[in-house]
Every structure is written in C-alpha cells, then in structure tokens.
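wait is this the right file?? whatever heres the structure
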C-alpha cells in the first residue's frame, strides 16, 4: 500500500512538473519606440534559456522556453540595448517593451549590396509608370518587347536581344524564386504564362541580358527576368477599370494585417 501511494505521489509530481513547464514556457509581446511605433527585426534573447526571437513588421514577438524570473536582452541597431527581468508584475501574454533611440557607431553597421541599380526596377518605377496587365510588367525590362498575336488566352510573344523568344523558350522567368517556364509544353519548351501574376503586387523586377547567368537555369539564352512581390499591403484597395472592346477589370486587395489585434491573433495562431 505504501509503495502504491509513493507511485501515485511520483506520478502526480511528474504531472505537475510537466504542466508547469507547458504553461510557463512561452511569452508574447510587442516592441515599440518612444513615439509608440512598432519596431521590426528587434532581437529578443533569453539570457537564461538561450532562446531567441525577432519581432515581425508589427513589432510582435513570441519567445519560447521563457518564464517568470528569466532575463531578456532586447536590441536593435540605432536603439539602446535593454535588459529586463520578467518579474511577477509582467503579463506574459502581453509584454510591452519600449526602446530608446541612440546614435549608432560605424562598427555596428554592415554595408552590403541589396539592389543592383543597373538591373533592378524598383517600386518607384512601377508607381510612376503603372501597368495594366500582368504580362505588361515584362515591358519594364529595357529592350524587351511583347506582342499578342491571334487573340488572347495564351502567353504573349516575347522579343529580346534579336531573339524571337516565342512564348518563353529563350528567357528564364521566375516569381519570388518560383520558375514560370514549363519545361514541356505543346506550344514550345519553356512556355511562360504570367497571367497569374497580379501587377499591383509586384515590388521589384530584377533582370539580366545574355546567357551569362548560370544560376538562372538553361532557359537563359536571351536573358532572365525575376519578379519579387510585396511582403504585405500598406492599405486595402479596390479598383475598377474599363476599356475598348467591352473589356473591364476589377481588383480587390484587403489588408487583413492592418489591425494590430488581428496581427497578434494571427501570430498566436501561427497563420
């Protein structure tokens, strides 16, 4: 009987230990500056468990393996590093941290090339010269021409550097790293139909002319075009357009993450 009681006590102890670990191993919070703006890419480091996390574009973070009593180190370039101890006064489901700005030192900076000015079409170019269709974004590449023969319903004809590329045979096209060219198609090897791409979602266009880019694949005979789409929407948008021959176009883009409470909810649900 005594042995049975000891076994029951041991099982209860293990259960309580596991339960306490399960319910105290995660905190959620937000990092802001002194004017209440959320800060992105702030690192949050647990000095006790060595766990770490980074804030999203809305300043929100979720840090695992963290409980009351642990110390957190929070830092971002241009802001003073802060160390806080999670006392019982903190609500671990909604920790708010304020960082103060500072003058950063030169040795804190790492300068590297992010945009190739000679081959990248930026968001400014797309804003000042908007496009009307997804295939029209190809016209942004200098020296590239497209045409639609025998009516719509298929990818446009592409011309670049003296090549009649047909519908994509001699040009490598990708969207966010995803290849658009179809390696096998009845209309021609490398067939690339961009009509699935919404032009308003394009953030920048990277391109190169000539067969000099081995990493872009074996379709890069005349060149390559790589589209990068936006990570998020600044505002919701609904547009209507009409044209000749009874054509019309509608577009709806909804910013579901604009509300801070919705962002927090989606992050907690891992969506």
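ok assuming it is, sequence goes like this
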């Amino acid at each position: 009987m005594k042995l049975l009681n000891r076994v029951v006590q041991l099982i209860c102890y293990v259960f309580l230990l596991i339960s306490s670990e399960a319910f105290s191993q995660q905190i959620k919070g937000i990092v802001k500056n002194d004017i209440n703006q959320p800060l992105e890419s702030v690192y949050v480091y647990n000095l006790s468990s060595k766990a770490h996390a980074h804030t999203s574009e809305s300043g929100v973070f979720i840090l695992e393996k963290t409980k009351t009593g642990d110390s957190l180190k929070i830092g971002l370039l241009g802001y003073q590093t802060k160390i806080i101890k999670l006392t019982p006064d903190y609500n671990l489901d909604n920790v708010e941290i304020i960082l103060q700005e500072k003058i950063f030192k030169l040795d804190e900076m790492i300068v590297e090339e992010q945009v190739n000015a000679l081959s990248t079409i930026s968001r400014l170019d797309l804003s000042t010269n908007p496009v009307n269709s997804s295939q029209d974004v190809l016209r942004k590449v200098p020296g590239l021409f497209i045409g639609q023969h025998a009516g719509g319903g298929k990818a446009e004809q592409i011309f670049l550097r003296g090549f009649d590329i047909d519908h994509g045979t001699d040009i490598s096209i990708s969207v966010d790293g995803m290849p658009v060219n179809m390696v096998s198609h009845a209309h021609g090897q490398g067939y690339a139909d961009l009509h699935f791409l919404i032009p308003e979602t394009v953030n920048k266009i990277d391109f190169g002319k000539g067969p000099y880019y081995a990493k872009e694949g074996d379709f890069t005979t005349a060149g390559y075009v790589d589209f990068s789409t936006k990570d998020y929407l600044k505002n919701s948008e609904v547009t209507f357009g009409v044209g000749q021959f009874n054509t019309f176009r509608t577009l709806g883009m909804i910013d579901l993450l604009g509300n801070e409470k919705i962002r927090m909810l989606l992050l907690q649900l891992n969506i």
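DSSP finds three helices and 17 strands in the chain. so i think its the right one actually
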